[in-house]
Write a structure and sequence with these properties.
The structure holds 2 protein chains of 2 kinds. By secondary structure, chain A is α/β, with parallel strands linked by helices. Helices cover 38% and strands 25% of the residues of chain A. Chain A has 9 helices and 10 strands. Chain A has a 6-stranded mixed sheet, sandwiched between helices. By secondary structure, chain B is mainly α. In chain B, helix 2 packs across helix 5, helix 2 packs antiparallel against helix 8 (173-184) and helix 8 (173-184) packs antiparallel against helix 9 (187-215). Chain B is flat and about 70 Å long. Chain B has one domain (5-217): MetI-like fold (Orthogonal Bundle). The chains are: A alpha/beta, B mainly alpha. Chain A binds chain B through residues 48, 51-53, 74-76, 78-79, 82-83, 85, 87, 89-94, 102-103, 106-108, 135, 137, 148, 151-152, 155, and chain B through 117, 119-120, 122-130, 133, 137-138, 141-142, 144, 216, 218. Chain B: Its main location: membrane. Chain B: It is a multi-pass membrane protein. Chain B: Residues 20-209 form the ABC transmembrane type-1 domain. Chain B: The chain crosses the membrane at residues 24-44, 56-76, 82-102, 185-206. Chain B: Keywords: Amino-acid transport, Cell membrane, Membrane, Transmembrane, Transmembrane helix, Transport.
Chain lengths: 253, 218
């Protein structure tokens, strides 16, 4: 299979502060890559670079074999690389359906009927067919996030980027969003996922990329990563998570 | 000789109407110019382009620091003197009101745009909208509720400030009223008329502002 996304020696710094440092990463068509790492390790910045919301400072970024830099036609790229954000970012002045159709109609200039049929089918798929005419503020966080996913999907992207999409959600709404992402993974879509949900990472990933200090510290299949992490930093990182999960019951006083 | 105030106003109604029409025309043109340029200013200051931001800040400082009256004299007497460019008084007033209003409207627009979460712009760009499309379809519509009261406030100030036109010889409603006072000494009547006229010109805008805010409160 061919590489959809390819990074070579990719670096990014904000002023003198390096955020990404010599990243080498190739993502195959249909692969599900989960990026883990401590806060500030650069994983969100990496996703933002992949659809041009940030520009790299050095190194190479290729999409479908084509090299991308600050002068590239990012509007065209973004139609193929959908992105979903932590805080949903639905547009409050538009109803759900108009949120979803803004890109297909204004950017892709598609026929309204065809685009609307797809939007409604996607809403059906995420279980929100009855919310097409609702305003974003009337919806729960989990519903808004599923709409945001539909908004990105309705552009028919080749790749989807998920940037901590469940981090702002109440625990009982995490499930409904993760199920949608699992569904996409099973349908064979190329996904790059930044998350702090370890169990989800393990379940959905073809490969775990562990980042630390702007570098890729380690890449391995999920089973290998979670049972036998290679780097001390990854061990430490996983221990923090398992510490909470395995916290013993406090002795009753 | 007119016996009552109302009779006087009735007799001079044609002149007053002409003056009122001119005041409204000046105000409307000034408001239109201020709105278009103010939107451009607000967008320009939120694009994150350093040189543009700096130039627009200088523009703002110039219109804030120098009284509108001085600008009016600069345009009316200064342009012919320094550039040999003679601009009709009416156009001078409209330009000065429009350019001054643009700095005020622009600051309101900038503030409203800045108050939006940064992620909204990212989300708009992420679905492939161009930078200006993001303003047209997402950012300005999102900010319009917040900018409405401030912008309408500027509009009413433009209407009231339009009476400075008298000072460069434009015969607007204030000038007509003065002329009638000079003839009849009926200052109370005419100033009461001006009071009511400006109130009626400005008040509907305040009502409109409240209506729009309600309409956009989703």
């Amino acid at each position: 299979m061919s590489d959809v996304i390819e990074l070579r020696g990719f670096s990014k710094h904000f002023g003198a502060h390096p955020v990404l440092n010599g990243i080498d990463l190739a993502v195959r068509q249909g692969e599900v890559v989960v990026i883990l790492g401590p806060s500030g390790c650069g994983k969100s910045t990496l996703l933002r670079c992949l659809n041009g919301l940030e520009q790299g400072s050095a190194g190479e970024l290729r999409f479908n074999g084509e090299r991308l830099d600050a002068r590239s036609d990012w509007r065209a790229v973004r139609q193929q690389v959908g992105m979903v954000f932590q805080s949903y970012q639905l547009f409050g002045h538009l109803r759900v359906l108009d949120n979803i159709l803004l890109g297909p109609l204004r950017v892709q200039k598609r026929a309204p009927q065809e685009a609307q049929a797809q939007a409604l089918a996607l809403l059906e798929r995420v279980g929100l067919a009855d919310k097409a005419l609702a305003w974003p503020r009337e919806l729960s966080g989990g519903q808004q996030q599923r709409i945001a996913i539909v908004r990105a999907l309705c552009m028919n992207p080749k790749v989807m980027l998920f940037d901590e999409v469940t981090a702002a959600l109440d625990p009982e709404m995490v499930k409904e969003v993760l199920e949608v992402i699992l569904d996409l993974a099973e349908a064979g879509m190329t996904l790059l996922i930044v998350t702090h949900e370890m169990a989800f990472a393990r379940a959905v990933a073809d490969r775990i990329v562990f980042m630390d200090g702007g570098r890729i510290a380690e890449q391995s299949p999920p089973e290998a990563f979670f049972s036998n992490p290679q780097t001390a930093r990854a061990q430490q990182f996983l221990e923090r998570f398992s510490y909470v999960e395995n916290l013993p019951r406090r002795k009753a006083s | 000789m007119a016996t009552s105030g109302f009779e006087l106003l009735w007799q001079t109604a044609p002149q007053l109407a002409t003056g009122a029409g001119r005041t409204l025309a000046i105000s409307a043109c000034g408001i239109a110019l201020a709105t278009v340029l103010g939107l451009a200013y607000g967008i320009g200051r939120t694009l994150g382009i350093a040189w543009l931001d700096r130039s627009l800040r200088v523009y703002l400082a110039a219109w804030r620091a120098i009284p509108v009256l001085v600008w009016l004299y600069l345009f009316f007497f200064g342009l012919p003197m320094f550039l040999g460019l003679s601009v009709p008084a009416f156009a001078c007033v409209v330009c000065v009101l429009g350019l001054w209003g643009a700095s005020e409207v622009g600051e309101v627009v900038r503030g409203a745009l800045r108050s939006l979460p940064a992620g909204q712009r990212d989300a708009a760009l992420a679905i492939g909208l161009g930078r200006l499309q993001a303003y047209a379809w997402v950012l300005l519509p999102l900010a319009r509720k917040r900018m409405t009261p401030g912008v309408i406030n500027v509009y009413t100030r433009i209407i009231k400030t339009s009476s400075l036109a008298v000072l460069i010889g434009v015969v607007d409603v204030t000038k007509i009223a003065q002329q009638i006072i000079e003839r009849t000494y009926a200052s109370v009547t005419l100033y009461s008329f001006l009071f009511v006229f400006f109130f009626l010109a400005c008040y509907p805008l305040s009502v409109l502002s409240r209506r729009l805010e309600q309409r956009w409160s989703h």
